[in-house]
Write a structure and sequence with these properties.
Length: about 675
């Protein structure tokens, strides 16, 4: 049977495993499968259970589109998860691992995190966003104001009376908005604990705090949690760890940490607390997430930075998905490095790091998720450039594929491999790049090519499954993508090299990567387009103001004015780190690398794509560039997507985005 050509609609055939949880005894795994529901034009989830002792087919536990975040009870008999089955409000559910109907555990507040069982299985803790108490919000705020509608639990701004205006937004916090969430100035994350027998739900924390992660202590008498704290005048994040007693809600201060903490994990025995995150030695987004440990039995609480022991001081890479083994003797984590990932294990004795080893558990380059069994066998999600994500089991050095979500897809479509190459960038550094030859490539022929730029700048490409690149290859294009300075997974110095030089040597290295690919004899230098999203959208706009080598360009969620971006979105701290300061102290630095300043240089036809609710790179960035391009008589089209944030979620809009992108390049590079 002849293979089919990929189209943007082929995206509907793809699935993904987005959560994996091993049962406490290691005999079963529950996992979450995400796919597209074309009828509702949304993604939908389903929970599946697989017995690992028998060669049995997986069992579908649930099929509601909003089911997420499955977590095992300590005895392995039940699974708790989050779902919005009754209306739009998320709720907590529990289902028997043997199947049956899920039972709702009613709570007033909608959980915003995965549920976490207490060690005895009698309680579940979760995070939820809570309105701050009303009252005077700034000194001298008038008490006699125009009557306004009262907020309800159902919606942030629902009017209780058509004659009353919606509540005004009184903002005093610099972090007042976030992409995908909108205004967050009056909602703070709190911890709740629900008694599964009585149904009583208690709020354990209060105040204007943002809780990042939390965990039960080993006795189940308290919760430890991380609070992210931001100092606007210093533009620095710090973190603190607290402990709240379940019986009386008494709070104890455990640690002050000069940096950001993404995750905490308590060792068996309850003495050593593992922390994951970057310190403040580098700007936000630049530093690697290291492993740290503190001694909860220390008599000198609260601890400070001097009491925190780094377990990976010499490792110049982030430590992702870190987990203790069952004995608390070692920690497993995923290390991303140079376009691939490795499962690592570091041994720990009395809070001090021992040797670290790397495990070769799969031939696939990317480990996306994993979980451990008591015998240290593991389940993991893996993929590479020609293999979509699937779930695997590694036990006794043997690997078994547990899911075959893409068997039908792969039987109908060829996949095009990516050839990795290394070239010399600015300052003589080695830079990684990849070349994808088009479907039905013929040796000696040169092809129209799309150069793709990743987001960030602190993102990275890898030997990972990329449907858009497969789509472009099937539509007749070669594809080139690179990891210039600023990319992660190459060490902190490499990532930090973009700071204060946005649009400088990073741009030079991207162009050098394209030149190298041209030298490989595949790319037609007279038929090249460029595209990217976020920072990739910025670099697309920047490139067409700096060179006329591109015959077409597609910029998504672009940045055209760095000076204006500051304060218009949720990434002002990150932006300051890239420039060494805010635009009111680094004005020329922000403007000098802004495409808007050089708009009159543009000769390349440009397609702009942007979500109308984007708070990361505000829609005004495309608004400005489009207006300036039209004013100067350039060839530009601007497509705005309703109700979409920085990353699109509506499947039809994602397909529309790629349909327009492919069509734009076909018209200008192929003449179609």
């Amino acid at each position: 049977m002849s293979k089919q050509i990929l189209t943007p609609e082929s995206l509907f055939s793809l699935k993904n495993v987005t959560d994996v949880q091993m049962s406490p005894d290691g005999t079963q795994v529950v996992y979450l499968v995400e796919e597209t529901d074309q009828e509702t034009d949304k993604t939908k989830n389903s929970l599946w259970l697989r017995n690992l002792k028998e060669d049995a087919e997986p069992i579908r536990l649930t099929a509601h589109p909003s089911d997420s975040s499955p977590r095992w009870s300590p005895d392995g008999k039940r699974v708790a998860f989050i779902s919005s089955r009754e209306g739009s409000k998320a709720q907590l559910f529990v289902i028997n691992a043997g199947g049956g109907e899920a039972e709702q555990v009613k709570t007033k507040h909608a959980p915003s995190s995965a549920p976490l069982w207490s060690p005895d299985g009698q309680h579940i803790a979760f995070k939820a966003r809570v309105d701050l108490p009303t009252g005077e919000r700034y000194p001298g705020e008038p008490t006699q104001l125009i009557p306004q509608a009262v907020k309800t639990d159902e919606t942030e701004a629902k009017q209780d009376d058509a004659k009353k205006p919606a509540p005004v937004h009184v903002i005093t916090d610099i972090n007042f908005q976030a992409d995908r969430r909108g205004l967050i100035y009056d909602k703070f994350t709190q911890l709740f604990v629900i008694n599964l027998e009585t149904g009583e739900c208690q709020q354990m924390t209060t105040g204007a705090k943002r809780i990042e992660d939390f965990i039960w202590n080993t006795s189940g008498s308290a919760l430890l949690y991380v609070v992210d704290r931001y100092c606007p005048t210093l533009a620095k994040h710090t973190a603190a760890i607290y402990q709240v007693d379940i019986a009386n809600k008494a709070t104890g201060h455990i640690l002050n940490f000069a940096g950001s903490l993404n995750h905490i994990n308590l060792a068996p025995g309850g003495r050593w607390l593992l922390l994951t995150g970057p310190d403040n030695k580098r700007p936000l987004g630049i530093g690697v997430a290291r492993l740290w440990v503190i001694d909860l039995h220390s008599p000198s609480l609260p601890l400070d930075q001097a009491d925190v022991h780094c377990l990976t001081p010499e490792l110049d890479a982030s430590c992702n998905h870190a987990k203790w083994d069952k004995n608390g003797e070692s920690i497993y984590f995923v290390k991303p490095w140079h376009g691939a990932t490795t499962l690592c294990q570091v041994f720990v004795t009395a809070g001090e790091a021992g040797k670290m080893i790397e495990h070769e558990i799969t031939d696939l380059s990317m480990i996306a998720l994993f979980d451990l069994a008591p015998d240290n066998s593991l389940v993991f999600v893996a993929h590479d450039f020609i293999t979509p994500p699937e779930l695997y089991l590694r036990r006794q050095n043997a690997v078994k594929q547990l899911t075959h979500l893409h068997a039908d897809f792969l039987s109908k479509h060829e996949v095009c491999p990516a050839e990795k190459f290394t070239y010399q960038g600015a300052d003589g550094w080695d830079i990684d790049g990849w070349l994808v030859r088009p479907l039905n490539y013929e040796s000696g022929q040169r092809y129209p090519t799309v150069l793709s730029v990743h987001g960030g700048p602190t993102g990275a490409y890898a030997d990972s499954w990329q449907f858009p690149f497969q789509l472009l290859a099937h539509q007749g294009f070669a594809v080139v993508f690179t990891n210039p300075r600023g990319s992660v997974t190459y060490g902190e110095d490499f990532t930090h090299a973009c700071v204060g030089d946005i649009g400088g040597k990073d741009y030079q290295e991207i162009m050098a990567g394209l030149d190298h690919a041209i030298g490989m004899g595949v790319v037609d230098p007279n038929r090249v387009g460029i595209t990217g999203w976020s920072y990739g959208g910025y670099m697309t706009c920047w490139s067409v103001t700096q060179t006329n080598r591109f015959q077409a360009a597609v910029a998504g969620a672009c940045i055209s004015n760095w000076h204006d971006l500051y304060g218009c979105g949720d990434s002002h701290v990150y932006d300051e780190g890239l420039f060494g300061g805010p635009p009111f102290t680094k004005e020329e630095e922000h403007l000098a690398c802004s495409p808007i300043r050089y708009v009159q240089n543009v000769k390349t036809p440009l397609l702009l794509l942007h979500g109308e609710l984007d708070i990361r790179c505000h829609t005004s960035q495309s608004d400005q560039f489009f207006t300036a391009l039209k004013r100067t008589g350039k060839e530009v089209v601007y497509v705005r997507y309703p109700d979409q944030y920085h990353g699109f979620r509506r499947p039809s809009y994602i397909v529309d985005r790629w349909t327009r992108t492919v069509g734009w390049f076909k018209y200008y590079l192929l003449g179609d």
